[in-house]
Please model this.
Amino acid sequence: MEFFEDWPDYFQVGLNWSERLLEGLWTTVQLTIYGGLLAFIIAVVLGLMAGSPSLPLRAPARVLIEFFRGISLVVLLFLLMYVLPQFWMRSPDLPFRDLVYNTFLLGVVALGLNYGAYGAEAVRASLTSVAAGQWEATTALSMSWAHKMRRIIFPQAWALMLPSLTNLWVHLLKGSAIAYIIPHVSDFTAALNQLRRPTDIWFSHAFIGLVVYFVLALIITLFMQMLEARAKHRLGRGPSIREILSPAPKAAVR
Model:
């Protein structure tokens, strides 16, 4: 019990540091949301390109997926922060010159590129998991590739890819902790590192950090499960969200 003797004082210190912790938490939430949205866009675009029958679309998609999936997030972050600005410094006429000095934006881009490459494989695999009969039906109806993707294939693949995208978004949340090394970006992990000095690492990281990151991951998981339930219901494969949340159980349909 001696381990917890100082914790009442630590809670008081935590309350005094609440403003810094909330600012860091808000930064982490923004990194997770913006990075997740960018990763989703990249995943869908590269996943559709990788699943395309056209080689000019499929080949560059495979190169980009393998490159950004194979590179370390830390290395990618350093490339964006320290290598990319060198090109803009040597060529002042290049567009978006000021954006390469926005460290928060670079963090979002690094997260989006890295996890978007992983997500692209989930999108491509989900497209190939759609029943062969659905593909054959679209071919029999002489649908264009874009039309059959929008109307038939992607809505079914959407329900299949959501569990994988949920895992990746939770991983992105935890990966956003790398932002504490980014200059001028103070995320929740950076705030916990500061809180560790007047308290200890067990209180700051193993208690406050564990609880907060767990709650954030739980929120993401529940939100994505609702999307999955909605997607399956629209395909006629499960109950609606209203039925799931209803306190009265629905009788089984025979």
